[in-house]
Design brief:
The complex is a heterodimer of chains A (181) and B (239). Chain A is 78% helix and 0% strand. With 181 residues, chain A is an all-alpha fold. The longest helix of chain A has 36 residues, at 120-155. Chain B is built from nine helices and no strands. The longest helix of chain B has 31 residues, at 59-89. The chains are: A mainly alpha (181), B mainly alpha (239). Chain A binds chain B through residues 1-4, 6-7, 25, 30-31, 33-34, 36-37, 40-41, 43-48, 50-51, 54, 61-62, 65, 69, 72, 82, 85-87, 89-90, 93-94, 97, and chain B through 1, 22-23, 25-28, 30-32, 34-36, 38, 73, 77-78, 80-81, 93, 95-97, 100-101, 103-104, 158-159, 185, 202-203, 232-233, 235-236, 239.
Chain lengths: 181, 239
């Protein structure tokens, strides 16, 4: 095998893997610019294969982003450095987004006249109400967490912040478990 | 969340690429950002490539503009899984998604910086600079544009772990070697004024021997360097 042939084989393999990745991403409902990028840069898009396509933003999407942006800004204070890791916040935010996406999905179902008449619709509405209350409570908790981070900068006690974060994580997890049950 | 415009995103990756990585921490964000960051790095690198190709002029402007984005993309894309493994080996858990986003942001930053260097490169090229000095100037500019991009990836790595310096230096070495050899395979970028314009030169030798010869030649020390084929390439010669 000469060098030019080996190079061609490598390029073909790269593009073939990219093509397969692009096809898989297209099946998952990714937009064309995303799945076409996989032809060139499939290694960076592999995480997208592990999840379903991005769901439509739910009713709390903006509040979730605003709350977490403010919290991240508060955590950049040198006094709060290292108390909460970026990964912990990412996980909490992702859980909230999933709960928000499920609320959006139920909203879409309930918007259909045929499904609204179904006896199961009442059950959906009750479950939605519970999920909405929980997401709101967690968002309030995130705001309180920010206040506690501010206090931490003055008092230096990291325990309340860690405890509050643990409570919020457990609460969101409970909503997820209930939704999956 | 309201998505930033392409212009805002370009400004953000130039000023603070880690802020872009932190603000877009979900997989859905990765799907939205990937094509845009690839586009920014591609356009920036293509502009730089066009300036590089202007040394020879003609079709070389187009060829270099096509090849420069590949030079910017291939090394980090190839190295990404190995970098991820290296940091995990040093007990630093960095999510692959975060690393991928940091690599894209770093590439975009390098692309924007490269496009900013294009006029700086074009000026000496337009006054008939020496070929070997032009190659070294191109390599130096590429290094200047690439290093801030690499630091973006390094800064995305969380704290903690053991022997971080090993993972950091290993990652840097890997990307450096990949960049050098990719550049060698994709040459010519700055084509010699006396040779015919070609998209690629035949594969021969390696980058390290060539850089040594070019450095010596730029000082007026011309030897009789001949590209030596080795490994896979030596088999080609034997055939």
């Amino acid at each position: 095998m000469n060098a030019s042939y080996a190079t061609l084989v490598l390029v073909a393999a790269w593009v073939a893997i990219g093509g397969l990745t692009a096809a898989a991403l297209a099946r998952r409902g990714q937009p064309p610019e995303t799945y076409l990028s996989a032809l060139v840069a499939w290694p960076v898009l592999l995480p997208l294969l592990g999840e379903a396509a991005a769901t439509a933003a739910g009713p709390f999407a903006t509040r979730i982003d605003t709350c977490f942006q403010a919290l991240r800004a508060a955590l950049t204070d040198p006094g709060a450095a290292g108390v909460v890791s970026a990964e912990e916040l990412t996980l909490l935010k992702a859980s909230l987004r999933r709960a928000d996406a499920r609320i959006a999905m139920v909203d879409r179902l309930l918007a259909e006249d045929a499904l609204r008449a179904d006896p199961l619709a009442l059950q959906h509405e009750r479950a939605r109400g519970f999920a909405v209350d929980e997401v709101e409570a967690v968002l309030r908790g995130v705001v309180q967490l920010r206040v506690q981070v501010g206090l931490l900068a003055l008092a230096g006690d990291t325990v309340p912040v860690r405890r509050r974060l643990g409570e919020l994580t457990a609460r969101v997890r409970a909503v997820e478990e209930l939704s999956l049950a | 969340m309201s998505r930033p415009s392409l212009l805002t995103l370009t400004s953000q990756v130039l000023r603070d690429p880690i802020a872009v990585v932190d603000a877009h921490d979900t997989t859905a964000d990765l799907g939205w950002l990937a094509p845009r960051l690839l586009g920014i790095s591609g356009v920036g690198a293509a502009l730089f490539g066009a300036a590089v190709g202007s040394y020879r002029g003609g079709e070389q402007v187009l060829y270099a503009a096509i090849k420069l984005p590949l030079l910017l993309w291939i090394p980090p894309l190839f190295a990404l899984p190995a970098i991820h493994a290296a940091w995990r080996a040093c007990e630093v858990e960095v999510p692959y998604r975060r690393l991928a986003l940091a690599a894209l942001a770093g590439m975009a930053r390098a692309g924007v910086l490269a496009s900013a260097f294009a006029p700086v490169l074009w000026l000496p090229y337009s006054v008939e600079a020496d070929y070997h000095a032009s190659v070294l100037l191109f390599a130096g500019m590429l290094l200047l544009a690439g290093l801030p991009g690499l630091t973006a990836i390094a800064r995305a790595i969380p704290a903690g772990g053991h022997r971080r310096w090993m993972a950091a230096s290993g990652s840097l070495l890997l990307v450096g070697v990949l960049l050098a050899q990719t550049g060698w395979l994709l040459r010519p970028f700055v084509a010699r004024p006396t040779t015919a314009v070609a998209l690629f030169r035949p594969v021969e030798g390696d980058i390290f021997a060539s850089l040594g010869y070019t450095a010596a030649a730029s000082l007026g020390l011309y030897g009789d360097w001949e590209a030596e084929r080795a490994g896979l390439l030596s088999r080609e010669r034997a055939e």
